[in-house]
Amino acid sequence: MTDLPINKTELLEHLESGRREWEQTLAQVDPAALDEPGVEGVWSVKQIVAHILGYEEWALAFLTELRDPGSGARSAFDAFWQKQLELYRQDHPDFPALMGETDDDQTNAVVVATYDRYSAGEVLERERQVYGQLHIATQLVPEDRFLEPWKPGGRTLIEILPGQSYTHYQTHLPAIRNWLAARQ
Fold this sequence. Notes:
mainly alpha; 7 helices; about 65% helix
């Protein structure tokens, strides 16, 4: 499933099959162990899910704005994460002042720290809700929009969305599976 889909139908098929694999793996995790660190680097399963959630939230805001340019979805998303960065910088003043200036590791740190304030159950439920909304939003975007660059010279949605969802799951599933195997 690492090949890029060629159309919206194939994208949705990959999204759904990738999601089944993700959910099947998460179902094997003892809820009491969701906060246990060291699954992938220092991250727990909860933190991996939070990390995925951040990407899915971005994709959802992006698709919402694409369908309804007046929705303000991306602006609200950007404002929320800017506020989270400002809170994070209270303990990490060396971080950039703007989310647009953070690198991937810094962005991930802010996202994970934000969701560390919530229980593992809340994070998993939020991620499932956002995935559901992302799936619906993907269905609602017209077919031709998936093959257009999202900005001049940019990648197409068919190239972007897998990395925000099912191929992103595939990136983290081996660590979760290895951790599960080591626990048995």
